[in-house]
Structures are given as structure tokens and as C-alpha cells.
Write a structure and sequence with these properties.
The complex is a heterotrimer of chains A (284), B (251) and C (297).
Chain A: H1 2-37, H2 43-47, H3 63-94, H4 99-112, H5 117-131, H6 137-160, H7 165-173, H8 178-189, H9 191-207, H10 233-241, H11 246-276
Chain B: E1 3-14, E2 17-28, E3 32-36, H1 43-50, E4 60-68, E5 71-72, H2 80-85, E6 87-90, H3 101-112, H4 120-130, H5 134-137, H6 150-162, E7 168-172, H7 180-193, E8 198-203, H8 206-212, E9 215-220, E10 223-229, H9 230-235, H10 240-247
Parallel strand pairs in B: 3-8, 3-9, 6-7, 7-8
Antiparallel strand pairs in B: 1-2, 1-4, 4-5, 9-10
Helix pairs in contact in B: 3-4, 3-6, 4-6
Chain C: H1 2-45, H2 48-53, E1 57-58, E2 63-64, H3 67-98, H4 101-116, H5 119-141, H6 151-175, H7 179-187, H8 192-221, H9 224-229, H10 247-254, H11 264-296
Antiparallel strand pairs in C: 1-2
Helix pairs in contact in C: 1-11, 3-6, 3-8, 4-6, 5-6, 6-8, 7-8, 8-11, 10-11
The chains are: A mainly alpha (284), B alpha/beta (251), C mainly alpha (297).
Chain lengths: 284, 251, 297
Amino acid sequence: MKLKKTEEIIFKALMYISVSFITASLFLIVFSIFYKGLPSMSWEMVSQTPKGGFYFGKEGGILNAIIGSLYLSIGATILAMLFGIPIALFMNVYLRKYNRFVNGIRFFLDLLWGIPSIVYGAFGFTIMVMLGIKTSLLAGIITVSIFILPIMVRALDEVLKTVPVGLFEASLSLGSTRSETAFRVFIRQTIPGLATAILLSFGRAIGDAASVLFTTGYTDHIPTSIMQPTATLPLAIFFQLGSPIEEVRSRAYSSALILTVIILLISVIARVISAKYNKHRIKF
Amino acid sequence: MKSKIDIKNLNLFIGKQQILKNVNVQIPENKITIILGPSGCGKTTLLKSLNRLTDLYEDVKVSGEIIIDNEDILHSSQDVTAIRKKMGLLAQRPYPLPMSIYKNVAYGIRISESENKKTIPQRVEHHLKQVNLWDEVKDRLNSPASRLSIGQQQRLCLARGLAVNPEIILADEPTSALDPISSQAIEEKFIELKEQYTVVMVTHILRQARRIADYVIFMYLGEVVECGTAEEFFTNPKEEKTKAYIKGAFN
Amino acid sequence: MSVFSRKFRDKTALFWMIISLVILLLMPILLAIGLYLKSLPILNGQSFWELISESDWKPMQGKFGFLPFITSSLWVTFLSVIIAAPVCILTAIYLTQYARKKVLAFMHPVIDILAGLPSVIYGVWGVLIVVPFISKTVAPFFGLQTSGYTILAGAIVLSIMVIPFILNILIEVFRTIPEELTEASLSVGATKWETIKYVLLKKAYPGIISATGLGVARAFGETIAVLMVVGNVVKVPSSIFDSGYPLPALIANNYGEMLSIPKYDSALMLAALILFGIVLLFNFLSRMAIIRSEKNQ
């Protein structure tokens, strides 16, 4: 009896350790990024593009990478939405009765979930070489959108799944077509969830380095057209961290800080949306 | 008695299970027809096959005819959305659309008729008055429908259904989620509405059927056991099963 | 007129939906075919088994032995999952069986943020904390000398990256176990811990296996973070304090450059194909295990 009690105590202790380990890891990561990144953080970093000698520790900032990353991930998210939202609606409105088929699609998407972005990146580059396309913002947008599409569809699908069949029937009984039901009722009913799912995909797009490694190129200028190459934050961090010069490495930390803050912001916004934007949502 | 809906040899299977067995009934115009029976007898399925919501489910096979206004809606060349528009549906629980009170009623008008947009506010008012909801909501037409009480939501759903000018009202145990006072309001409304509409309502509450039915269809295990006028059904039932049900043997 | 345009809109929407779905479903198939076609040149020269069992990697001389990369990948992946899995199981049990609402409300964003942090951030953290920790503390403890850029560093960074992923699935697994089951066990006099040990864990076993499998798939393809801390030395590692060179790092470091070397491009595409295949395989087996166990319940 006493032995059993001891066993439970030991395992409970291990559980506390595990939970603390996870929590501590997050705080340690965020803390060390802030600690190392803050000293060389400056207004210059976020408001200027690299000047001559930037990569030897001279003046300039990483505005090119910030803007580039925003262009890239906003573009990729919009492109993925253009296909992803119709697919998720198709699965949940049109194909609702073909349960086995829809589950088959879900299974297929789940398989794709873990396909490394480097595979997409490398393949995207091969296609570009074949077609004679140069590294550019557009090539990056296309590669990243292909990479986040399965993630986005699956997340949207999880949200749309929750629409009760009664609401579907109610909408059809009023004489709506299926597309009207999809776009006017299903989307409205689930807007906070859909927004969260899209934000999540956006987060994936902005943070991924491997898929843009070969496809976007790298430049110190802010692109003025989608045919131009562009810098991105993850690559800016990656390249600067490889520098032998101390100043440049510390700028890598500041860049990491900027990216971390963006990701934290996305997470906060997603939370606020799902907490507050429940005005039209009807719980059944 | 003029019939509005004529159901002939209706059989419905879900997979290999037969849900409706050779249903042959006529539903009279401008009357309240109650489909009565214990749960699982196929009454909701029968109701949903009238506006082809059964299309939404997997492995459903339907045979037979459902004739409304001289047209077999099961094999119609007509668009299914047009068939559904003819019938307003009131479900077991209110399912207001995720939009404001006003837009809930205006929705059906907006999507189906592009002309006379100017009359929409008047029509919304008219239909909300029709279900006695106008006075309760006229000051907050733009607030979300989800803020209404369940009873109010159900009346809103009725108004929304009426706004598309249906000829038939289908109701699937519309009072089962409501409090007694809201239920009474719905029942009273139905009695008023039968002047203009044909009402078909599913219920398993015997007393509700006694209160409002003109015509009764009694179902058991997918079959129509007995149908006829309410008076005859309750005072002089022919089948043993009906007698037992009326005495309360099934509950 | 209005009916026509409504119908038209309905048809257009349907058309676009079908096109999108077809694109989504075709894309990975095209990807697989493309990778295969691109890796054919190297597969024509040598057999697949020869390539993956050979440890000589000298592209200039036309020698492409994948063994160092495959073994590095396996080491890093399995070590990271070995670290992550127990932590995740214990945490999932705690969060679903013991934790109060406040703890849950706190842990939810913690897990979400960990899951959302970009790979490169984990890499930076690895370079800042994990690598020095290994070279200054862990290795000397074992009487070894290393730069810290090791298999172990990669595994530690990777384990924290896969924790939120495995944990989310495990929480779901434990949540779907019906409460009646644990209540039944408690009511026959078992303690809470006995119930967890004999009922919950037994019931959740297939789910735990699949969650771990999915974690393996995820860890296997992780690129940037691992690349930044693992050392990237072409050699079959013999200890966790050796440097390694996993498959994704191979592609990331070399692709797009030196394409003039014959078959080099093809060899890297084969690496991508291997990655693709292994990830797909682990995902498939794990998902099948989940589906099986759901059907049995």
C-alpha cells in the first residue's frame, strides 16, 4: 500500500517536472532572444534598409527583410485563401453527404501535414530552373502558398465542421443555393474560427525559412514588384548569424527578436479574435 | 377536402435500412396536419423528404412520388431550391442565421427577388408582426439574432420562413425546446396561419395534436398506421395500435 | 434574369471549388513524381540500396553515399523523440487528469506559442544556449571536448520543437477516453494513480504510439533549426557528442549551388524524395493506428 503511494508521488513529481520543463523552455527561449536582441535593437534596425558596410557592422537596418517577409507571407496567405476557403467550403457544404470521401480528403491532408518545407522549396527551385524563372517574390509566394495550403485547409475544415446540420437545412429551406449557404451562412457563422485558422497559416508562412531559401533570393532593397527578389526575416537572421563579425551577429539576435514579437503578436491577436468576435456566432 | 400534397408509394432507405415503408397519404390544403408517432418511427424523415432535405444525407434512396401542385417533386425538372422555397421549415430548435434580426427576415427576400428592394423594410415589419415579434424587437432590429430568447428565436425563424412566401409550412416538433408560454404562442400562430398556408407538423405530444390538429397521420416503425380527420382519429380510431397509442401505451 | 445570375454564380462557385480541390490533391502527387523523375539520373547509375548504405560522399568524384546523412537524421530524430515523448505523456496526463482550470488556461497559450515559434528562432536559441551548455557543461562532465555543435544539441532543440505537436495530439487522445471508464475503475476502489496506470494508459496506448510516430515524422523533416546547431560534418556519427549532417541540412546547405557537378542536383533531389517518403510513411502508419483504435472503441 505504501509502495503504491510512493509510486504515485514519484510520478506526480515527474509530471510537475515535465510541465515546468515545457513552460521553462518557452520562457527561456523568449527570454534569451529578448536578452540578446534588445542591446542592438534600435529604431534604425526597423526603419532602414542595409547601407554600405552593413554586413561589416556599419549602419543600416533590416527594413528590407521585414517588409519582404510581410509581402511574402501576406501574398502567400491570400493566394492560399483563394483556393483554401473554396476547398474547405466544398468539403463541408457540397460534399457533406459523402462522408467517406471527405474523410479520405482529410486523411490525405493529414499525411501532407508533415512534409518538410525544404522539400517544397527545393522542388519549387527545380521548377523555376526548368521554366527559366528567376528567384523572386512571386516564386516565393507561390512556393509558400503551396506549402501552407494543406495546413490552412485542414484548419478551416475543423472550424467549418462545427456548423450544425440544422443551420444548413434552415438556409436551404429559405431557398438559398448551396453557394449562398456556403458564403453567406457558413462563413458568417464561423468567422472568428476562420480568422484564427488563417492567422495560424500566416504565422507558418512568415516563420518558414526552408521554403524560401532558394526561391526568393536575397536583396538589400525593398522589392517594388513581385518579379524582384526579396529578403525575408528568417533568412536575414540565418545569414547574419553566420557572420564572423560580432556586431552583425548581435543584429541577428535583434532580427530574431523582431520575428518573435511578430509571432507573439499574431498569437495574441488570434486569441483576442476568438474571445471577442463572437457577436454573430450562435452556439447550439 | 382539397389535397395539397399527395404522397404515393413513398419508400425511403438509408443504406439497407428501410425508414419509410410504402407511405400513401394526402395532406389537405389550408389545414393543420399532424404527423404523430413514437420517436424513431420515421416521421421527421417523412417531413424532410417533402422539401428534399433528405438529399443531404449519405446513402439515402427514395422511390415513389410526392405530388405538390400537380408536380412530382422527387422527379422534377424544377430546381430544388425553388421547391424548397415553396415550403418554410421550422426545426426542433431555432437555428437563426448568423446575422441581425432584421437581416434574418430579409435574407430570403434578398436572395430570391432582385426587384423591389425598397419594400423589404415593410415586408420585414409585416412578417415580424405576423408572428407577434415586432413589438419586442422593433428597437433592436440590428442586434444579432442570437441575443433573443429561444422562444423569440423560434418565432423569428417562423417569420423568416414566411418572408419567402411559402405555400406550405413544415414544422418538426417546433415547440420541443420551448417553454410552455412560447409553445402556446407558436400553436396559436399555426391556427391563424392555416387560413393562408398548409401546415404540416411533426410531434410526439398527443395533447398538442389534440389541441391543434385538423388531420392526423399516425406512424409506427416507418409505416402509416392510420390517417384521417382529427375528430375521427381521436374519438373513433380504427386500428389497435392507434387505440393503444392514444391510451398512452407507447409512452 | 436574377435567377439566371444566381444560378450562374452558383455554377461558378462550384467550378472554382472543384478546380481548387483538384489542384490541392494533385499537387503532392506531382511533387512526388517530379522528385522521382529528377532523382532518376543518380538511381540509374547505382542501386538505391547501394546509395543509402555507402558512406563516401564526394560529389566531385561522383561518389554519393547517403549513409552519413541518413544515420545523422535517424540519431537526431529518435533522440529528440525519446526526450520529448515521456515529457509529453506526463504533461498530458497531468493536464487532463490532475490540473485545475487555471493551470490549463495558462498552459494552453504556452503550448500554442511554442508551436508557433519559427524554426529559425529555435535555431538562434540553440546557438545561444544549448550549444554552449553542451560544450561547457555537459561534455566536460563526461570528460569530453566538443564545440557543442553536436547531434545532442540538434536533438535537444528538436525535442522542444516537437513537444507542442505531440502534446496536442496526446491531450486529444486522453480527452476522448470516456469518463465512465475511469469512473468505473475509481468506483471499484482503485486509486487515481492506479486508474491512470491500468485503465487510462492502456486505453490510450495506440494513441500514444501514433502521437509519437507523428512526432518522428515531424522531427525528421525539420531543417533550419537543426542545421544551425548540429555541426554539419559529413561523417557517420558514432556518439551523441559527434557532429552530424541530417538530410534536410544537406539539401538546404548545398542546393542551388554547384549544380554544374554532374548528378549532384539529382542526388539532392533523391535526398528530398527520401525525406518525403519517410515522412509520408510515418504519417501514414500513425494515422492508420489512430483510425484503427478509434474503430475498436
